[in-house]
Amino acid sequence: MKTAQKYELHENRYFNPNPVVRKIAIELYQKVKNLPLICPHGHVDPEILAKNRPFSNPTELIVIPDHYIFRMLYSQGISLQSLGIPLKNKPPIETDYQKIWQTFADHFYLFAGSPVAAWLNCEMTQVFGIKLKLNSKNAMTIYDQIQQKLSSSEFLPRNLFDRFNIEILTTTDDPSDTLVHHREIQDSEWSGKVIPCFRPDGLINIQNKNWKKNIEELSRISEIDIMGYSNFIEALEKRRIFFKHMGAVSTDQGVTIPFTHELSSIEAEAIFNRALRGEASENDSRLFTAHMLMEMARMSIEDGLVMQIHAGVYRNHNPFIFEKFGEDKGCDIPLATEFTNNLRPLLNKYGNHPKFSLIVFTIDEATYSRELAPLASHYPAMKLGPPWWFNDSIEGMIRYRQRITETAGFYNTVGFNDDTRAFPSIPARHDLCRRVDSDFLASLVARHIIDMEEAHKINHALAYDLAKKSHKLDKT
Q1: Which CATH architecture has domain 54-154?
Q2: pTM for this prediction
Q3: CATH of 19-53+155-475, one of 3.30.2290.10, 3.20.20.80, 3.30.300.30, 3.20.20.140
Q4: C-alpha–C-alpha distance, residues 19 and 27, integer Å
């Protein structure tokens, strides 16, 4: 009987095949590969680390929560129900987790050449010690191997957190969240650093179908009777203070377009009241969100929280999926996005303020060199977030560096963040970025644009320093 071939990751993966560049890249990478992981923006559920219970099985850990995985499978005609994705407010139809894993393994070949394959191959080999490359034939062997490891104390969430060498991890949290799981972590004897991030999207978008319910929740948790716009602002400010008390260093705003515009208090009050009555128009919503970005910037200057803007996504593009399964089910699509005019009111008012820190993310690569790099290379308050979502890939990271470096340099960027719900993939994502950045810097050294001393300093900054500094984590 033929023995299955042992699978190992190439130690010099992702590096340039040119031997001159590769040699330099390897040297640079060796100096940063073991640095602690700074995770300043992500979507890991804090309950995982608060309860510290064993992960149930490989399918629920790796497949079901990861929209990168199931969106590819769905594109090939595989139903989300068959992958264990629950319908809105209902339990999943398919709960045979081994069957779901087999389906995943049968189609693992679909991810070849994608960052998902890069992450998963690294995760399988380096986190779980799997010596086989996933396919149809070995699916259950690998499932059983992972399942066995998940039952051991070594694979409890907190032990993995420590093993991954995560120095700090930021979650993403609704303003009305009690942060009870963060409190549990802080009150425990475990030394892991997990902090919240203030994400008010459901409150600043008055066209959100749950907006009134969200206002009611904010009113309840803040103990402020929100009868109008001024009460609304007071409640937000109070919740930001609470989040900061719980360790938060940042806020995050997810918007379709980064349009900013300041309304008068009378105009803002009128729109807010129309929204309470269910009479707000689409233009009201556009203006109110634009105004609230200005307000978030003002609050950031007052309370010191770093402001992040994630723009340029048409969320829930597929109504069939959204109506059946809800949000974050892999059907969000990038949009062409304009920043120069849209951000001008905010940057003109606050971009020169020494206490304001703004990090801007986009999925529209066309704006890197044309708009974002020039803006970040001028306004002292603004920095560029790393390649995000569809651009969080080998070639996406290379294009990012190629298009912004000559204008914005390296120090107007903020390092890397993994932006993931898939907890065990965190070290794989950071490793990929560290390898790509090492290779990019190596190409500059080989062309005598920078020297090795500069390259080592920049690489350390990209892998560690900038993420801490830009998110004010060096002060926590």
Answers
A1: Orthogonal Bundle (1.10)
A2: 0.96
A3: 3.20.20.140
A4: 12
